[in-house]
Amino acid sequence: MKEILIINTGGTFNKRYNPLKGELQVPDDSLALEGVLKYFYNLKYKIVNIIHKDSLDMNDDDRQEIISVIRSAKQRKILIIHGTDTMDKTAKFLEDRVGERCIVLTGAMVPYSIDFVEATANISTAIGYILNCHKNGIYIAMHGLVGVHNKIFKNRKIGIFQAI
């Protein structure tokens, strides 16, 4: 089994409550991600923690950092943990800048630290897809759906991801 690269950028998936500040914060670790990955017994992976932001605070410099990590990676299959509010923007940004890879973006709308179910389901769907991916491209895996990034969108009116 070939190793996949997991780029952990932060987002709601990773948020934890900081009792000293009284707010949810994006930490600079991968504790939430590791909480899910410990159940993937046969998965070979490498985690790279970068950016550590809510996706609403991400900009093109952050997206360029993701590209730099991807371009320097030996892995052909890449999972990006990303905030849900701008994962579509990041996917579009990556589209013409990285090639010859199967890249899947996923995240969670509820922090893993509050309710692990959605985050675990989304990561599980993404990993299942990426392990069986035979076609290069940029994909989004959310709420049981996986598709080319421009065919999946966050429906803000009802609070779920849907296919176009």
Task: Give a verbal description of the structure.
With 164 residues, the chain is of the alpha/beta class. The protein has a single domain, classed as Rossmann fold. The chain is built from 5 helices and 10 strands. Strands 4-1-5-6-7-8 form a 6-stranded mixed sheet, sandwiched between helices. It has a two-stranded antiparallel ribbon with strand order 2-3. It is globular, with a radius of gyration of 15 Å.
Topology, pairings included?
Layout: E1 4-10, H1 11-14, E2 16-18, E3 23-25, H2 31-37, E4 45-53, H3 60-72, E5 77-81, H4 87-95, E6 102-106, H5 116-131, E7 137-142, E8 145-148, E9 152-155, E10 160-163
Summary tags:
alpha/beta, 164 residues, two-stranded antiparallel ribbon, Rossmann fold, globular, 6-stranded mixed beta sheet
Number of strands: 10
Q: Give the total of domains.
A: 1
State the helix count. Answer: 5
Annotated CATH topology: Rossmann fold
CATH architecture: 3-Layer(aba) Sandwich
Helix content: 25-40%
CATH superfamily grouping: L-asparaginase, N-terminal domain
Distance between the termini: 33 Å
**Derived structural class:** alpha/beta
Strand content: 25-35%
Helices and strands, in order, run as EHEEHEHEHEHEEEE
* Biggest beta sheet attributes: 6 strands, mixed
Model regions low in confidence, pLDDT < 50 over at least 5 residues: none
Estimate the global geometry from the Cα principal axes: globular
